[in-house]
Amino acid sequence: MKIHNVVLLASVLLLPACTLTGIATGAGATLGVAASQEGGLRRAASDLKIQAQINDLWFRSNVDSFLKLDLTVNQGRVLVTGVVQDPEERVEAIRLAWQPEGVKQVINEIQVAESGGIVGFARDTWITTRLRTALTIDKDVQSINYSIDTVSGVVYLIGVAQHQAELNRVIETARTIPDVKRVVSYVKLAGARISDSVTGNAGVQPAPETIRDYEPHPLTERQEQAGMYSDDGDVAAYPAPSATPDRYGATGGPQSLIEVEPLND
Fold first, then answer.
1. CA–CA distance, 38 with 240 (Å, rounded to integer)
2. Which of 75, 98, 111, 255 has the fewest CB atoms within 10 Å, i.e. the most exposed one?
3. The domain boundary residue, chosen from 78, 112, 146
4. Other residues' Cβ atoms within 10 Å of the Cβ of residue 156
5. Could you please report the per-residue DSSP string of 7-37?
């Protein structure tokens, strides 16, 4: 690893930054399990470099504004979650996330709202921990390929699934955890290519062409109103809005956005 990469890694670990737990856990986990992850050590090192650069940009821009943000990087895809008090802070956080070389997609799941406080944070941490534990002990799931973020009871998944059955299993597991309000998946299937057509500094990108709901239950009223149609009898799809202010992604990428309701009461 080149000297400047080592310096970058050291700098991000010293930041007071965007959830200390997330940074420490993310850096350690990435280096510790990189060889086993989809894409191997080189891809993991690139993701870690991107994460370090984004954290550095946030720190130098306005560290106070981004203290409640979490950052996940997987195969050049950046997921940003958390809560800010000002909509302009959300825009700036995403703009900066596009800056590092190698960023292929930025997924914005930042909420603009009053802080949920320590109780809300503890509940989210408990949900994430319980889901991570459940996936780790599930012999039919390669849990190492999944990253999990929970914000205000909404579980966000990003990573690589070996096949559709594994992804369905992960989503169903998340749905059964108490206090989960919604599950949003940005997981791609192994072997699918991520579009490289988007450059950094691209600003707001069009939403993906389709949003897919793989739930076996009948279409909800909201989906029907959105004009969903069935393309194969089992999978329903509908065109994404032409402009979605809080979804930034590469057009034409193989990603799927899956939003499902929890099974718990």
1. 29
2. 111
3. 112
4. 23
5. HHHHHHHH---S-HHHHHHHHHHHHHHGGGS
